[in-house]
Design goal:
The protein has four helices and six strands, in the order ααβββαββαβ. With 149 residues, it is α+β, with helices and mostly antiparallel strands. The protein has one domain. The longest helix is centred in the N-terminal third of the chain and has 17 residues.
Length: 149
């Protein structure tokens, strides 16, 4: 019969394995993926005042399959459409023509120039002319993919 190693050696070995696993570089979740919280933070770093104001009714923007989340940036409303996957956001963005209307089967008359931005899983819609808001959005998203004239 073999002698058993002392329990302290077994526990020490188990502890070393556990610690090495915790110190590894494997991520515990997705990294670099834009979330609403990260978006608000990135916009704030652009020097604007931004806050999240809840979710709009589905009927407000029937041309997109997700409900809009309303952000206020320097007092102006910006609508964020967050999709489950980037491919779905890309597909939704493809329904918006360069002029910003019509979108799919919805003819929209905008009260001010629309600007549509897309990044990762998001489409953002800004209908307004505040250049501080435009610069902040372009600082995070780049130039609009539609509207903006």
């Amino acid at each position: 019969m073999r002698p058993r190693p002392p329990i302290s050696r077994i526990l020490g070995f188990a502890s070393a394995v556990w610690t090495a696993g915790c110190l590894g570089s494997a991520p515990t979740g997705p990294t670099g993926v834009l979330t609403l919280d990260r978006l608000v933070g990135e916009l704030a770093r652009q020097g604007v005042t931004v806050s999240s104001r809840g979710t709009e009714p589905r009927e407000s923007f029937p041309f997109f399959s997700v409900r809009a989340k309303r952000l206020t940036i320097n007092g102006d409303d910006v609508h964020a459409f967050e999709y489950a996957a980037e491919t779905v956001a890309t597909s939704a963005a493809s329904t918006v023509p360069a002029a910003g209307t019509p979108i799919g089967t919805s003819q929209v008359t905008w009260i001010s120039p629309p600007r549509f931005y897309r990044k990762d899983r998001f489409i953002l819609l800004y209908v307004g002319t505040n250049m501080d808001v435009v610069r902040a959005l372009e600082g995070v998203f780049g130039k609009p993919f539609a509207g903006g004239t």
